[in-house]
Specification:
Elements (H helix, E strand, L loop, with lengths): L13 E7 L2 E9 L15 E6 L16 E6 L2 E2 L29 E3 L2 E2 L16 H12 L6 E2 L3 E2 L2
Antiparallel strand pairs: 1-2, 3-4, 4-5, 6-7, 8-9
């Protein structure tokens, strides 16, 4: 999660990144609200990040041959890849993930910057969840149904 102090003005952004084993720039899916204050302190958020090397959005092919995509949901609301340019494509920064000893970092923008809050109930699956499964998980955790949108900007109630 980013805050207002980033040089890129990435306030309240939640991201899921994938890096090559050699590090460098990473490809990401970014859940970015249109204004500050959408993401609130002292509030839990249900975040799902999904990675696949099996397929990619059709508009990724102009960036490189690397297959793969990244998606992100916040409180059951899927970001709209089509409205967010090249993000969500492994080919954005020529990322080719492979098995190895690289760590899985959760709650970090970099190894020197950690999320100042609580993170709980981490789950890792070896398959892609459907929208119905993500909705059911969110509803089970909160007691409410997902609502909002994330086309050109992201909103949640």
């Amino acid at each position: 999660m980013y805050n207002a102090q980033t040089p890129q003005n990435r306030f309240d952004r939640l991201s899921g990144y994938v890096f090559n084993p050699s590090a460098g720039l990473g490809s990401a899916a970014d859940w970015q609200p249109s204004a500050t204050g959408v993401i609130q302190a002292v509030h839990w958020y249900h975040v799902v990040v999904e990675y696949t090397t099996k397929s990619q959005p059709s508009d990724c092919i102009n960036y490189g041959p690397e297959p793969g995509s990244i998606n992100i949901w916040v409180d059951g609301v899927l970001w709209d890849h089509a409205a967010h340019g090249s993000t969500g494509c492994m080919s954005q920064y020529h990322v080719v993930p492979k098995a190895g000893s690289s760590p899985l970092n959760i709650g970090s923008m970099a190894l020197d910057s950690w999320f100042e809050g609580a993170i709980g109930k981490i789950a890792i699956y070896n398959y892609l969840l459907t929208q119905n499964q993500i909705d059911a998980h969110y509803t089970a955790m909160t007691g409410i149904n997902p609502s909002g949108s994330c086309s050109s900007t992201c909103t949640i109630p």
